[in-house]
Known about the structure:
By secondary structure, the chain is α+β, with helices and mostly antiparallel strands. The chain is about 35% helix and about 15% strand. It has a domain at about 235-345.
Amino acid sequence: xxxxxxxxxxxxxxxxxxxxxxxxxxxxxxxxxxxxxxGACANLKLFEEFQDENPMVLGVGPLTGSFAPASPLMVATFxxxxxxxxxxxxxxxxxxxxxxFSGFDFVVIKxxxxxxxxxxxxxxxxxxxxxxxxxxxxxxxxxxxxxAQRPHVYESIxxxxxxxxxxxxxxxxxxxxxxxxxxxxxxxxxxxxxxxTVVMNGTGGLPFESGHATVARRLxxxxxxxxxxDDSGCLAILTRVDPTWRKKRWLTKRIGKALACYNCPxxxxxxIELKGTPKGRENQKAGFVLLDHMGFLALLRKRxxxxxxxxxxCFQLGLDPVAxxxxxxxxDHTEQDLEILARLAETEDNDDKRMIFxxxxxxxxxxxxxxxxxxxxxxxxxxxxxxxxxxxxxGRLWTRRVATAMILGICPLIVLLYPQLGEGALLxxxxxxxxxQESFQKTLDSCVGRILQKGFPQS
Length: 459
């Protein structure tokens, strides 16, 4: 039944050994797709195959890079060094298509390099090369250095920034736009292996049935019917996670152009303009792309109208804004806060670390009933906490929709925003017959259960 999925893949994977700076390119076993479908569950299968070497697996789903709405997803699967449990981090924008169109569906990374290394993935090849020149740089400096080497190439970049170079427990992965949804230790894993960055450049593509364009158009129409007036850019997420933020009118004046992921009809990111330049930072950019909604809200609750400046500084230093927010001053002292962030980026002391999952929401805890921090952390800890169905705000719905999106290759944020873009609406992209769809649904159910069971082996 899952053999037809092969046409949505290159059926090629790579095993990168950082210890030897070697790359082994091989055919993808059909069993990985038969039992795992793709994305987080297929990653899990490959992780178990190389489990003795504690790898990190990058992988895509069958719908990644397809006509399906919002199909940008790549998933990074690894063992969280803090909790010793598996985590699946979603990467959006163009990460998934860049990996898949480069000729690879999955990349297993193992070993440890003695020097900072970069993985360059492009044109059906992977190179392991030195990244020594960007060690100690802030985000914008590092990105400029990478792009200066390839000025005419569009790339998706995963970068371990300044805080990771100093082994800070507050470090988080950066992307080419700044923030990420990494809040469970991917930066620490990469730092422990001396993996500085992963650069992906996809130049190809995969064929898809012509009828998929019609199915996609119908789904987009259904989304536009449901969209609210404020469903533009980051407003779509912020107003659902925390409706009280609307009272902060100063923020609406700073929200610029909305940005979308690959093939997404309903963008949920925005460019946030900075007003005023902190002393000594005159050369920084005039704004940033808001992808980390949870991180921004944590700083917004703590520091009000200084949240944009502090969010941008977290991105530049490679800090998780949620973890960093607990240590900021409680008064309007921006310069003092910037000094605190600088210290957090350079500390190696893990005893004082305070990761916050749900506590920022006050006495009521998580806004999604029945969802706890462990489940949230299983999927990276950065996916926004809301369910849009009226009267059904519960953790079961959140978990099911996120897990399904993380398997199929769809952005989990848009699935939470628009329930009509659920698995039932996505299956026609994979199978035309109702019988095939029902059979595949059983496999999908099994995959979701497997992810949850392996994420919590003691439960």
